């Protein structure tokens, strides 16, 4: 057999070893979701999103089933839906422009979510359809989903504002909101502990911003405060102060243009329905870029995700596991807790 046979044998084993190594690398770095704005791989189709946005919240057909995520290997994502004005205000505030489904969920489980007022005002603002028509819907955060694997934190959001915002309102008041993250208790963070921010919008009022850039935001000055509703701060990363530490894989898609998803919002001024565009944000955020080591899981332990729709702060959505839970309960009891807490700072 000789030297030639031994060489072929050696090359064969080297090839097998390299192939195995490459497969292992691919397995580690493979994303759970395709980051393209299509939430079908979350188990939520474009048709279901449009159905969820346009159903009567008091009808039996309008349940959380169309909003709940469902996919193979689902790791109990946490989510919240807060379309239009909360139906809890239907009796006291019938002048509200429209009412929509409100749910919070953990995996496939969900329950009614009561959206509190912010600064004493119903969200989204302005809610009064008799005075402002459907303008309030332009600032509506419709839904947020949070999931993870060993290497990435995944966030998906259904929103009303375009990536370039509403520039007629000025900077940062009209800028599309950025994603605020609190994932570490050992970093003070700005505006209540938000350690990192992910730039979502394309309008760059501060200069040098990178869309889907991940910024370290240790201090309040690293964020812009909400112009109209300060309790919904933070709103937009101040890239002139915050430090760029990496990049997320991201998409900010006009779902109306791509899949024909529209929201039809009643206009109390003329008893018609206004056709509103919908946008979908989807992110894969590397854990190593937000101060976590690969293999660290936080969705069942401690995290806060905050998204203010626009810099004015007229509406915001939050999904979180608050820090006090980790302080008063043993870790063994925390894992598997079925809860999704949606709160607003300064809510009344």
Q: Summarize the biggest pleated sheet.
A: 7 strands, antiparallel
Number of helices: 6
Strand segment count: 17
H/E element string? HHEEEHEEEEEEEEEHEEEEEHH
Shape: globular
**Residues in β-strands, percent:** 25-35%
Distance between the first and last residues' Cα? 85 Å
What topology, given as strand order, has the largest sheet? 3-2-1-4-5-15-12
Show unreliable segments: 7-28, 323-348
Supply the number of structural domains. 1
Task: State the helical fraction.
Answer: 10-25%
Class based on secondary structure composition and strand pairing? alpha+beta
Mean pLDDT: 86
Radius of gyration based on Cα positions: 22 Å
Give an overview in words.
16% of the residues lie in helices and 27% in strands. The protein is an alpha+beta fold. The protein has one domain. The strands form four sheets. Strands 3-2-1-4-5-15-12 form a seven-stranded antiparallel β-sheet. A six-stranded antiparallel β-sheet has the order 11-8-7-6-16-17, with no helix packed on it. The longest helix is centred in the N-terminal third of the chain and has 28 residues, at 2-29.
């Amino acid at each position: 057999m000789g030297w030639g046979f031994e060489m072929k044998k050696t090359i064969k084993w080297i090839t097998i070893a390299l192939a195995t190594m490459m497969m292992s690398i691919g397995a580690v770095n493979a994303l759970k979701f395709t980051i393209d704005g299509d939430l079908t791989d979350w188990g939520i189709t474009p048709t279901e999103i449009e159905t969820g946005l346009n159903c009567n919240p008091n009808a039996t057909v309008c349940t959380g089933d169309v909003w709940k995520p469902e996919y193979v290997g689902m790791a109990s994502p946490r989510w919240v839906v807060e379309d239009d004005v909360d139906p809890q205000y239907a009796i006291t505030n019938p002048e509200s422009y429209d009412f929509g489904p409100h749910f919070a969920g953990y995996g496939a489980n969900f329950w009614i979510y009561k959206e509190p007022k912010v600064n004493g005002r119903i969200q989204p603002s302005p809610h009064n359809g008799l005075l402002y028509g459907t303008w309030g819907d332009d600032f509506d955060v419709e839904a947020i989903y949070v999931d993870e694997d060993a290497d990435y934190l995944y966030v998906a959001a259904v929103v009303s504002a375009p990536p370039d915002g509403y520039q007629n309102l000025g900077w940062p008041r009209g800028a599309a909101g950025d994603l605020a993250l609190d994932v570490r208790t050992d970093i003070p963070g700005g505006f209540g502990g938000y350690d990192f921010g992910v730039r979502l919008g394309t309008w760059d009022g501060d200069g040098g911003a990178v869309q889907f850039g991940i910024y370290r935001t240790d201090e309040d000055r690293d964020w812009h405060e909400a112009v109209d509703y300060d309790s919904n701060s933070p709103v937009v990363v101040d890239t002139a102060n915050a430090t760029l530490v990496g990049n997320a894989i991201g998409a900010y898609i006009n779902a109306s243009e791509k899949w024909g998803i529209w929201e039809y919002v009643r206009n109390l001024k003329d008893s018609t329905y206004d056709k509103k565009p919908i946008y979908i944000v989807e992110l894969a955020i590397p854990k190593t870029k937000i101060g976590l080591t690969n293999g660290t899981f936080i969705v069942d332990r401690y995290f806060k995700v905050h998204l203010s729709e626009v810099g004015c702060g007229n509406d915001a959505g939050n999904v979180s596991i608050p820090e006090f839970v980790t302080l008063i309960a043993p870790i063994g009891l925390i894992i598997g807790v079925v809860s999704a807490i949606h709160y607003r700072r300064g809510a009344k």
